[in-house]
TrEMBL record:
Domain Transposase IS110-like N-terminal, residue spans: 7-161
Pfam family, one: Transposase_20
PANTHER family reported for this sequence: TRANSPOSASE FOR INSERTION SEQUENCE ELEMENT IS1111A
InterPro entries (alphabetical): Transp_IS110-like_N, Transpos_IS110, Transposase_20
Organism: Rhodococcus oxybenzonivorans
NCBIfam families cross-referenced by the UniProt entry: transpos_IS110
Record GO biological process: DNA transposition
Protein name per the record: IS110 family transposase
Gene Ontology molecular function: DNA binding; transposase activity
Biased composition (Polar residues): 458-470
Annotated stretches, region: Disordered: 428-470
Record-annotated Transposase IS116/IS110/IS902 C-terminal domain positions: 280-364
Length: 470
C-alpha cells in the first residue's frame, strides 16, 4: 500500500536523532537532525507542512526506551506510527549498503520501508515499555532471579557451617531464617545467646511458627559446627566471625529483595485488576496471580495483532521453517519474541496439563511419540497462549472442558487427568536416555573429525618408534 508521506527516524539515545522524509518511496529530504525536545519537534512538524496529519506515517525502530517519547508525541499530533524489528531493518540495511552503516542511511531506509517490506511493520497502539503493568512484571522477574542468585551464594556459605543448619533452617530461606542468619551466623554467638533469648527471637521473627524446638536445634547445630572445625578461633582454618559477616551480607540482600518483591506483588495485583477486570487471563488453567499479570502485561492489547498466529509468533514459541521445493524442515523454536512471556507460558503450560484434560491428552500423545518433556511443554504453551488470546479478543473467560467438549470443574479436571492421562515416569527417563545417547554419538562424530594434534580422551600410544629405539 502506497503511503503519501513517510518519515523515517533513526532514534538515538544520547545523541541527535536523524530523520528522512519520503513521498511514495522517493526521498524529499534526508539527514534532518533534532533532539527529543518540544522546540525541536515543533520545528520539525512545521517543516513537514502537512495538510492532513493522518497522511504522515512515522517509522521507528524500538531503540531502548527513547523511541517511546517520540512515538507518543507524533501519535498525539495525528500521525500514524509504525515500528519495525531491529533484525529486519539490519538485514535490509546490509542489502542496500553492505559496507557502510550510519544514521543517515538508517533513517533513509526506514522512510522507504513501508514500500519495501510493508508486512514487516507493526502499528504502534500502546505505550509499550511505558505501560506500568508491562514494566512492573519485568522488574519483578528480574528481582526474583537476583534473589535466586543470592540464595545460591547463601547456600554455598552455609555449607561451611555443616549440614545440621539445613535441618533446622530449611532450604527455602523464609523471613525468620534470613533474619537469624543476618545476626547470628557465628556458632559462638548462637551459644552465647542461649536457648531462652533465641526462642524469643525466633517467635518474634517467625510470628510464632518457630519456637523452643528450633532454638534447641540451632544450638545443637552450632555445637556440631565447632566440633567439626575445632575451636573456631581462626587457628584451625576457619574464622567464624568473618564467615558470619559474609553470610549476613547475603542474608540482608535477600531480605531487601523479598520485601521489594512483596511490594511489587501488591502493585501488580492492582494494575492487573485494572487491565483485566473480568479476570479472563486468570480463568485459564495453570494461571495464577503472578502468571496472569505477566501474560496480560506482556501481550497488552490483543487486538493490536493481526491474527492469533501473530500472537504465537510474538511469543517466539513457533518453529523455524526451512522450505525449498518439496522439502520442508521445521527445527527448534525461533525464540524471537518476548523471553519473559515465553518463560511464563511454559510454566503455565506445565501446570495446565495437570488440570485440563485436553492439554493432558496432547501431552500424553507427544510423550508417546518420543518427544522429550521440554518439547512437549513448548507445544502446550503455544496452544495455551492461542486459547488465552482468543478469550481476550472475545471478552469471554476460559471454559474448562473434557476431550469430548463436556464442561467440567477444575476438581473434575484434575481427577480426569489423574485417572486417564498419567505418564509413566520410566517413559520420560527412557526418552531422556535416548537423547543423551544421540548427543554422545554426535559428540563422538565431531571428535573423529578433529585434527590429529587435537586432544582426545583415548589413551596415548606408548609403543616406542624406531627413532626412539635407536
Amino acid at each position: 500500500m502506497t503511503m503519501a508521506l513517510t518519515l523515517g527516524i533513526d532514534v538515538a539515545v544520547r545523541a541527535e536523532h536523524q530523520a528522512t522524509l519520503a513521498r511514495d518511496g522517493a526521498t524529499v529530504w534526508r539527514g534532518r537532525k533534532f533532539w527529543t525536545r518540544p522546540a525541536d519537534l515543533e520545528r520539525l512538524w512545521a517543516d513537514l507542512d502537512l495538510p492532513d496529519p493522518a497522511e504522515l506515517t512515522v517509522v521507528v525502530e524500538p531503540t531502548r526506551n527513547a523511541w517511546i517519547v517520540l512515538a507518543e508525541w507524533f501519535r498525539r499530533h495525528g500521525a500514524r506510527v509504525v515500528m519495525v524489528p531491529t533484525t529486519q531493518s539490519a538485514d535490509l540495511r546490509k542489502y542496500y549498503s553492505k559496507h557502510t552503516k550510519n544514521d543517515r542511511i538508517d533513517s533513509e531506509l526506514l522512510a522507504r520501508l513501508p514500500l519495501l517490506h510493508p508486512e514487516g511493520l507493526r502499528e504502534y497502539s500502546g505505550q509499550g515499555p511505558a505501560d506500568s503493568l508491562r514494566r512492573l512484571v519485568k522488574q519483578r522477574s528480574t528481582m526474583v532471579k537476583r534473589r535466586v542468585a543470592v540464595f545460591a551464594r547463601l547456600d554455598a556459605l552455609v555449607e561451611l557451617l555443616g549440614p545440621a543448619w539445613y535441618a533446622v533452617l530449611g532450604s527455602n530461606y523464609g523471613i525468620a531464617a534470613l533474619e537469624f542468619l543476618a545476626r547470628y551466623a557465628d556458632p559462638h554467638a548462637v551459644i552465647r545467646l542461649g536457648r531462652a533469648r533465641l526462642t524469643r527471637f525466633l517467635i518474634a521473627r517467625s510470628r510464632g511458627a518457630w519456637r523452643d524446638d528450633h532454638a534447641a536445634g540451632l544450638i545443637t547445630a552450632a555445637r556440631e559446627t565447632l566440633a567439626l572445625w575445632g575451636t573456631g578461633d581462626g587457628s584451625d582454618g576457619m574464622d567464624f566471625a568473618e564467615l558470619a559477616e559474609d553470610i549476613a551480607h547475603e542474608a540482608e540482600q535477600a531480605l531487601f529483595l523479598t520485601r521489594q518483591i512483596r511490594q511489587i506483588d501488591e502493585r501488580v495485583a492492582n494494575l492487573y485488576a485494572d487491565a483485566d477486570p473480568a479476570g479472563i487471563v486468570a480463568s485459564a488453567p495453570g494461571v495464577g496471580a503472578v502468571i496472569s499479570a505477566v501474560i496480560a502485561g506482556r501481550i497488552g492489547d490483543p487486538h493490536r495483532f493481526t491474527s492469533l498466529a501473530a500472537i504465537r509468533a510474538y511469543t517466539g514459541l513457533v518453529p523455524k521453517v526451512n522450505q525449498s521445493g518439496v522439502s520442508k524442515v521445521e527445527s527448534s523454536i525461533t525464540k524471537a519474541g518476548d523471553p519473559l512471556l515465553r518463560e511464563t507460558l511454559c510454566t503455565a503450560a506445565d501446570q495446565a496439563r495437570r488440570v485440563d484434560p485436553q492439554f493432558a491428552a496432547k501431552y500424553q500423545r507427544l510423550m508417546v511419540g518420543d518427544r522429550h518433556h521440554e518439547s512437549a511443554i513448548c507445544h502446550l504453551a503455544t496452544h495455551l497462549v492461542t486459547r488465552i488470546a482468543a478469550c481476550m479478543r472475545a471478552g469471554q473467560p476460559y471454559a474448562l472442558r473434557d476431550v469430548d467438549g463436556t464442561p467440567i470443574t477444575e476438581a473434575e479436571g484434575r481427577a480426569i487427568v489423574k485417572a486417564r492421562y498419567k505418564i509413566d515416569p520410566r517413559r520420560r527417563e527412557n526418552v531422556r536416555y535416548q537423547r543423551m545417547r544421540e548427543r554422545r554419538k554426535q559428540a563422538a562424530g565431531q571428535e573423529s573429525q578433529e585434527s590429529r594434534c587435537a586432544p582426545t580422551a583415548q589413551p596415548a600410544n606408548t609403543k616406542p618408534t624406531s627413532r626412539q629405539v635407536a
